[in-house]
Every structure is written in structure tokens, then in C-alpha cells.
Hints:
The protein is an alpha+beta fold and 270 residues long.
Amino acid sequence: MKRMITAAALALFIFSCSRVPITGRKQINLISSSEMNSMSLTSYNQFLTENKKNVLTSGPEVDMVKRVGARIAKAVEGYLNANNMSSMVKQFNWEFNVVRDNTVNAWCMAGGKVVVYTGILSIAPDDASLAVVLGHEIAHAVAQHGSERMSQELIQQYGGQALSSLLSTKSNAVQNILLSAYGVGSQVFGILPYSRLHESEADKLGLVFMAMAGYNPEVALDFWTRMASASNGASTPAILSTHPSDDTRIKQIQAFLPEALKYYSSSSNN
């Protein structure tokens, strides 16, 4: 039976609210950015070590991922600095790695730790379509979706247990929740990485970030159409595990494009 949330846990909910950049949505984050970054870095390095033989160090795929990633990261930092959120910029130490794996997926942990699987590059073979992917994944990190998702899981599984004590143990259970919050090994741990709300929000922020970086956000329509075709195969791409339905996503992107294009026009004039 799940533990009942205590008054102390309720207080954490009340005093741990923040707002997502651009959308302004209120969210609950019970974990500090420094703690989240520390755990993410440990897990990220562990992942790279375990997959060392498949981490690509050179080649056109690596060049493209690093090139597009750097442009979007620069645009994100520019936006944060211009909107009185410069403290968030210090939270990111960007790193982009490409892993040889047929899985159609990519992810970005807190602190800007990004992995792109080669499996998704067949659907995103050029800079603009890759910008859709990286914009979306980086948006998860900027919006602190991983921290929010992990906070939800910790409350659900541990109720009112002291959060500081729980995190200090760095137990396998806590690490598993962290990994699943970012979609790393989610099939193993049985926890869906993000809610549909998070995915839709990342779609919107991702369109804005790619537009700020000088990539036409209209490319997203073709990209997600190709992704929908890929999902008609034997298995659903990992990146789509909790996403809205294909029709819903396309409609939401079409509705938000006029807003995203404002940022693209602005970046094109710079």
C-alpha cells in the first residue's frame, strides 16, 4: 500500500513551486538543481562507460549532432539571459554524444547531458530535422521535466519520508527513478518517462528553441509525420512512448507554429 503523504510532504508541495519558461506553467520540483545535476552527471557518465564501445567519437553524424546541439544550446542560453533567468544558464554544462544503437530515441538529462541514438538519425538525417529532436529533448531539461517527474515518483513511492535522507542514500531505487525520469531504460524499470503534458510542452518549447537557433520550425511537421510512419512498424519508437497521438501532435504543432515562427523571423533578421 502506498504511504500517505504527511504534512511535511504537503509543505514541500506548497513551497517547491516553480514556473516553466515560455509556457509559464506551475510545477512542483522537490529536488534542488545542484542535486539533480549531480545525480544526472553520475548516471550519464555511468551510461557512457557501459556503452563505451558504441559511443561514436568522430564522423559526420557526430559532427552534425554537436553542431546543431551547440546552436540550440546557445539560443537557449540567450533566451534565459534575456528573460531574467540567467541563474539557470549556470546549471548547464552542455555535452552531446552519439551512441550506435538502432533504438529510435534521444534524451537530455539535467545539466544539458545529451545522448542521440543513431537509430533516430534515419528519420532526422539533416540539421533542420535533427534540430526538432534536440530542441524537444533540450526543452525537457530547460523545463525541468526530469526533476518534476522524479519528484512525482518519489512522493508516490515514498510518501512523507524525508527527501534529503532518501536522496543522500543514492540507492539503486533512487537511481532507477532518475533514469526512468529521463527515458533511459524505462522499459526495464517499467516507469513511463514523461507525461503527455510534458511531451506536448516540450514540443512547444522545442519549436521555439530551434527557431531561435535559426532553424525553420515548420520542418517539425514533416519530421513528426515521418516519425508517425515509423511507429506503424512492429514496435513503437522509444521517443514516442508517452507522446500524444500522431494526429493530436500534428494539430498541436500546427496551432503553435505561428508563435514559434515569430522567433524564427526574429533570428533570421539578426
